[in-house]
Write a structure and sequence with these properties.
The protein has helices at residues 4-14, 30-46, 63-74, 88-98, 110-114, 138-142, 179-193, 210-214, 217-223, 235-245, 254-261; strands at residues 19-23, 26-29, 54-58, 78-82, 100-105, 124-127, 159-164, 174-178, 201-203, 227-229, 249-250. With 274 residues, it is of the alpha/beta class.
Length: 274
């Protein structure tokens, strides 16, 4: 069984008391992460999600993004992260092209989906936050469900995620990444970078990019390590959190590191943990 979700949930069971997420001043452990992922999976299954179905997520960085991904994969479904910078027309093409069955939407971004919703074929819609018109709260409904007990086995070549290209020279194309792609990439990266149980990952790049998602974040879940997450990138906040939580690893684009180096607090920030 190469199901990445099964591996992550197994690690969560082994690391129940270790910090999983630090987000907007709050933190919770791996026992809570597993509970959230398993109850979301049960909710999706209750709404008809089956093996191979697509579950999309349109939202900013937040724990619900990773919980939804693990929940989808636990059912043998395929996760589709969506770029929150796209227009309604651009999203409509991707949602249709991927054949998304269930769509989780950030409340702030719901108007973009509403502008094209009558043309979409999604069977279920949820809000990643509070209840909204036509978007019941994923958290509230999932908390009423009994956690999923067993994950669906997956093979090395089964699709885990569809990551869409930017569409610079044409329409975006969906890159179908498998469970094997993720598992072996992260295994090799852990060996190359010397990953340990003391690592703390800073997640501030957009998770809808493969760099933001799978350059340390997913492997942190596989290792049972803490993830310090921000909804958006802010150079000052990032420097503050690195020092406060003794962050050891961070992925960023060159421009992000440039902005951090130009921040007034850069010289005074303790970066020795990196």
């Amino acid at each position: 069984d190469m199901n990445l979700a099964a591996m992550i949930l197994r690690q969560a069971d082994l690391s129940r008391d270790r910090t999983a997420m630090v987000f907007e001043g709050e933190s919770y452990d791996y026992a809570e992460f597993a509970r959230r992922a398993r109850t979301r999976a049960a909710l999706f299954r209750d709404h008809g999600v089956c093996v191979g179905d697509r579950i999309g997520f349109l939202g900013f960085n937040q724990p619900a993004f990773l919980e939804t991904m693990v929940a989808a994969n636990a059912l043998g479904a395929v996760f589709v992260p969506l770029n929150f910078r796209l227009t309604g027309e651009e999203l409509a093409f991707i949602i249709g092209d991927a054949g998304i069955h269930t769509l989780v939407v950030e409340p702030e971004l719901a108007p973009i989906i509403d502008s094209v919703r009558e043309r979409l074929l999604c069977r279920a819609y949820f809000s990643s936050g509070e209840d909204g018109e036509g978007y019941p709260s994923l958290t509230s409904l999932a908390d009423q469900m009994a956690p999923l007990s067993e994950t669906v086995p997956a093979g090395v070549h089964d699709t885990l995620l569809i990551m869409y290209t930017s569409g610079t020279t044409g329409l975006p194309k969906g890159a179908m990444l498998t469970h094997g792609n993720f598992v072996w990439n992260n295994f090799n990266a852990s060996l190359a970078f010397g990953s340990t149980r003391d690592d703390v990952m800073m997640c501030t790049a957009p998770l809808f990019h493969i760099g933001g998602l799978n350059t340390g974040v997913v492997s942190s879940l596989q290792l049972g390590n803490p993830i310090v997450m921000t909804r958006h990138f802010d150079p000052g906040v990032t420097l503050e959190l690195i020092q406060k939580h003794r962050v050891t690893h961070m992925f960023g684009a060159p421009a992000m590191f440039l902005f951090m180096s130009q921040h007034p607090e850069f010289e005074a920030t303790d970066l020795s943990s990196i």
